[in-house]
Model the fold of this input.
Amino acid sequence: DVKVTQSSRYLVKRTGEKVFLECVQDMDHENMFWYRQDPGLGLRLIYFSYDVKMKEKGDIPEGYSVSREKKERFSLILESASTNQTSMYLCASSLFSPLSRNEQFFGPGTRLTVL
Amino acid sequence: AQTVTQSQPEMSVQEAETVTLSCTYDTSESDYYLFWYKQPPSRQMILVIRQEAYKQQNATENRFSVNFQKAAKSFSLKISDSQLGDAAMYFCAYRDNSGGSNYKLTFGKGTLLTVNP
Done:
């Protein structure tokens, strides 16, 4: 089975701190994604990556950056955390091939609170 | 841009009964996939069922089935013989095959399903 893990289930940070959220997948997937999930808003794509060192902005990239130095790892970085970034963050991965039907596999999520 | 709309923020069903969750989407593409994902409380999101737009036959997975109406751009999920373990947030999602960023999913806002014993 595909396993997507995230470094923390719960995280509490202070305004202005630099925050790193880590995601690792073990199925050699090319694509990796970061979403934030807020009540009543569903999942919104922050950034995605289709290869090592490659990244593209999603729908809400402001205030975030990402890093993908190795295929299995995709990091989300909050350069200067703000209270409006308090949210649940979900990582996902999928195969690149269009023949794969591109099911995305999700991690357990990190609930980030910024005080 | 594609949009996905789930018009029911919350639904409830009695155990063993059938419930249908609604989803509509907007796209100008003809080749795409549709998905239903389930997110149980405090647990990981998992895929429930998928539908390829070029297939006329509705997808089924055990107690889960879809009613795919391509012309109406409707993609509802039917859960038969509901069980307590079906209680979760359900998300409808869309992905097109037009190339470029064809691996991105667009999600609806979700429907919270409660199953009453």
Chain B touches chain A through 24 residues (CB under 8 Å). The first strand of chain B starts at residue 3 and ends at 5. Chain B has a mean pLDDT of 92.
